[in-house]
Amino acid sequence: MRYILTEDRLPEAWFNVVPHLPEPLQPPLHPGTRQPLGPDDLAPLFPMALIAKEVSAEPWIDIPGEVLDVLRSWRPTPLVRARRLEEALQTPARIYYKDESVSPAGSHKPNTAVPQAFYNKEAGITRLTTETGAGQWGSALAYATTLFGLECKVYMVRASFEQKPYRRVMMEVWGADVEPSPVDDPDHPGSLGSAISDAVRDAVGRDDSHYSLGSVLNHVLLHQTVIGLEAKEQLALAGEERPDIIIGSCGGGSNLGGISLPFVPDVGVDLLAVEPSSCPTLTEGRFEYDFGDTAGMTPLLAMYTLGHDFVPPSIHAGGLRYHGDSPIISNLVKNNRMRAVAYPQGKVFDAAVQFARTEGTIPAPETAHAIRAVIDEALAAREAGKEEVILFSYSGHGLLDLGAYDDYLHGRLIEE
Ligand SMILES: Cc1ncc(COP(=O)(O)O)c(C=O)c1O
C-alpha cells in the first residue's frame, strides 16, 4: 500500500530543529585558534547563503523556487506500508517506510546536493569538491552539479572505489572527476575522514572552488527535513495519528535527521539511530570536540566521535564508516531525546535479504541497518502484543551494491 502526495504538496520550507533542541548547540571551533568560528572563517569553503543556514535559529527556512523545480522531478517520494514484511513477521506492528531510493542517484542524498549546488552557483562558484564513501553522496552531487552547470571533483574512499566501480561510472556519466582517497597513500583503504581532508585541501587552494559536505552539518540536515515533513502528511493520509518509533541508519546523521527532526517536538515519538558495530560512534564514542577530517583541517565540532584518526574496517555500508556524527544528532542522543543501537553486518544482511524476499526491493547496505532494527522492533512488538506504528527511512536502493549481496550469499561476508 503506497501513500502518494501530489507535486504541489512538496514542502516549501525546511524545518529547522535548532529552536527545539534540548540544549543549545555548542559552537564550532577554529582548527588553529580553538576559538568559536565566525562566518568569515567558513567563507573559503561555503557560500554565505549556506553559512547563514548553518547558524540560523529561524524555525522555518524557505526553499528557493529553482530548488523546488528540481526536487519535484522525484519528490514527494512515496510512503509505503510494508504489509508483506509485517505478515512474514506475524507482528501487530504497522511498518511504514519513506522511499528515498526513487531519486535519480538512488538515495536521499540529492535532497541536499541540489540546494548546495544551487547556492554555490548563485554565489559565482564554478567547481565543487567533495568526498564520498560508498559513492551515494558523490553520485548525488555529480547529478546536482551537472544540472546547474558546475564542475565536480569527488575524492572517493579507496575501499569503495575498488569494491563499487559502478558508482564511479555513474559519477563520470554525470561529468564528475573521481579520484581514490587518500591521494598520497595508494595502499591505504581510506576513510570518510581522509577523503574530507583531500576535498577540503583542494577547495581552499582554488578561488573557483568550494567544498560540499554530504552530511553532518546543520544545513545538510535542514535540507533533508523534506523527508520527515512529507512523511508526517502521508502518515495522516494512512490514518495514523503519529509514529511510535522512527528508525534511521546513521552515518553522519543526515538520513536519520531528515526523517526524524520534524518529529522532535512531538511527545511520545521514540527516535532510534542505527549504526554498524564496527564503527559505533553513538553507542561507544565520546562526546567531545573533534575534527571532521583525519588531517585536522576542518573546524572542531562538539559531537560523538571515535577519534578523527579512527579507520573503520572496510564494511559494505561505506556510507556509515564515519568517525563522528552530526552535532544535532549528538545533541539529541546526549540529552536522551534519541537512542542508538549498533549491529554487525552479518545480521544486517540477514535483514536486507528478508526485506527483499517479502517487499521485493533490494536495499542499500546502509539502509539495511535500519531494516535490521525495524525487524527487531516489530518482533518485540509481537512478543509484547503491542500494535505500534514504526516509520523508517528507506534511504537508498542496493542495485549497485550487488557485490556485497554476492559475498553474503556465498559465505564471504565478514560477520563484524
Ligand atoms: C543509502 C544511504 N543511507 C544512509 C546513509 C547514511 O548517511 P548519513 O547518515 O550521512 O545520511 C548513506 C550514506 O552514504 C547512504 O548512502
Folded structure, characterized:
The protein is an alpha/beta fold. It has a domain of 232 residues: 3-Layer(aba) Sandwich (Rossmann fold), CATH 3.40.50. 38% of the residues lie in helices and 18% in strands. It contains 17 helices and 15 strands. A 7-stranded mixed beta sheet has the order 1-4-5-15-10-11-14, with helices on both faces. Strands 8-7-6-9 form a 4-stranded parallel beta sheet, sandwiched between helices. Strand 6, helix 6 and strand 7 form a beta-alpha-beta unit. Helix 15 packs across helix 16. The longest helix is centred in the C-terminal third of the chain and has 20 residues. The protein binds pyridoxal-5'-phosphate (PLP).
Q: Which CATH class of the domain at 67-107 and 219-409 applies here?
A: Alpha Beta
Number of strands: 15
Bound compounds, each kind once, are: pyridoxal-5'-phosphate
Radius of gyration: 20 Å
Mean pLDDT metric: 96
Low-confidence stretches: none
Helix content: 25-40%
Report a brief summary of the structure.
By secondary structure, this protein is an alpha/beta fold. It has 17 helices and 15 strands. The chain has a domain at 67-107 and 219-409: Rossmann fold.
Write the layout of secondary structure elements.
Elements: E1 2-3, E2 13-15, H1 39-42, H2 48-54, E3 60-62, H3 65-71, E4 79-81, H4 83-89, E5 94-99, H5 110-122, E6 127-132, H6 136-147, E7 151-157, H7 158-163, H8 165-173, E8 177-181, H9 192-204, E9 209-211, H10 218-224, H11 226-237, E10 245-249, H12 254-260, E11 270-276, H13 281-284, E12 286-291, E13 300-305, H14 327-334, E14 339-343, H15 345-358, H16 365-384, E15 389-394, H17 402-409
Parallel strand pairs: 5-15, 6-7, 6-9, 7-8, 10-11, 10-15, 11-14
Antiparallel strand pairs: 1-4, 2-3, 4-5, 12-13
Helix pairs in contact: 2-10, 3-5, 5-6, 6-8, 10-12, 11-12, 15-16
